[in-house]
Write a structure and sequence with these properties.
Length: about 325
């Protein structure tokens, strides 16, 4: 082959490659964006979704966007709605640990491999809180009561095998409490769990500090401990960790964004670029600092790998806790 022929062939190959990769850089939304949330309005996940939607509007992506709440079924309703749209990047959904645990506990077969993981955007530790007038004086007293009688207190959680249920199980298991006898009461969202405790219907709220702290500030609740490895910053620094109380337990609730199953590479590339930019904005960082969110951003490929490992970890944990269903 002559040098001229080789050059022509090389140019032709480059042109083919350029055509192949161009869509990944060129795809942009042409219709309104829907940001789905599998919880009711008012909780931390809903706040995250509305922050993403507001930043999309500010970014001027060329189309409007809206948040749609689809609570119920441990987020399965939202995920089912997402996949009914087909492989369409105009709809994205917030996702929590339930995306991993629903299949493990047998509540719904849909899992992370049935959607397109797009990003891990943050994580947040879990606080354990009671009403101000609760007879439970502190974290050590709570553990002592449950060691003596595991049915002595009720715990408000957002669905079985949710992030705050896992946090409660992690803490109580490390404390030597018989988990199979502990009474958990499920709600659709963290706002409802807190209201249930404030109303005196349930004894203990498992909730992120950001959703419970306003009630602590208002004198209506006391936060006994947080599931972080070290004390959180700001006003919440007065709350001890479980490790400080002699219970070696750490647990966090991560938040992610997913698309429908089978999203084309062009659309994944768009959301990779867009979400990576959103979490670097001053507005996102200010909200993260205020709410004690941990900065743990991962792109689409790394989020998929993270969820693979998380599935193995949570399957083992939930099997030990007695919640996993046999295959």
């Amino acid at each position: 082959m002559s040098s001229h022929s080789f050059q022509r062939l090389a140019c032709a190959c480059c042109a083919v490659l350029a055509c192949a990769v161009a869509p990944a850089a060129d795809w942009r939304p042409s219709r309104p964006i829907e940001v789905l949330v599998g919880t009711p309005p008012g909780g931390p996940l809903d706040e995250t979704a509305r922050l993403i939607q507001a930043l999309l509007e500010k970014r001027n992506i060329g189309v409007p966007s809206t948040v749609i709440n689809k609570p119920g079924g441990g987020h399965a309703i939202a995920m089912t709605y997402l996949n009914q749209r087909g492989a369409d990047g105009h709809a994205i959904s917030m996702a929590l640990t339930n995306l991993i645990t629903n299949r493990i506990i047998g509540s719904h077969p849909l899992t992370y491999s049935d959607v397109t993981p797009l990003a891990l955007v943050s994580s947040e530790y879990i606080g354990m809180s009671v009403r101000t007038d609760s007879p439970v004086t502190d974290g050590r007293d709570l553990v002592a009561r449950l060691r003596a009688n595991p049915e002595a207190l009720t715990f408000a959680i957002t669905n079985r095998a949710s992030g705050n249920h896992i946090a409660a199980g992690t803490v109580l298991k490390a404390a030597g409490v018989d988990l199979k006898k502990v009474r958990f009461v499920s709600f659709k969202g963290s706002a409802e769990t807190t209201l249930a405790v404030l109303g005196g219907h349930v004894d203990v709220a498992m909730a992120t500090p950001s959703s419970a702290w306003k009630h602590v500030q208002g004198g209506k609740m006391r936060m006994l401990a947080v599931s972080s490895p070290r004390r959180l910053g700001g006003e919440i620094s007065v709350v001890p960790t479980w490790r400080e109380l002699g219970i070696n337990a750490v647990s966090s609730n991560w938040r992610s964004v997913v698309g429908a199953k089978g999203l084309p590479a062009a659309q994944i590339a768009y959301w990779d670029q867009t979400l990576a930019a959103l979490v670097k904005t001053p507005e996102w960082r200010a909200t993260a600092e205020r709410n004690q969110w941990e900065d743990e951003y991962l792109n689409s490929a790394d989020t998929y790998k993270f969820m693979q490992e998380e599935y193995r970890h949570l399957e083992a944990l939930l099997t030990e806790l007695g919640d996993a269903k046999s295959p």
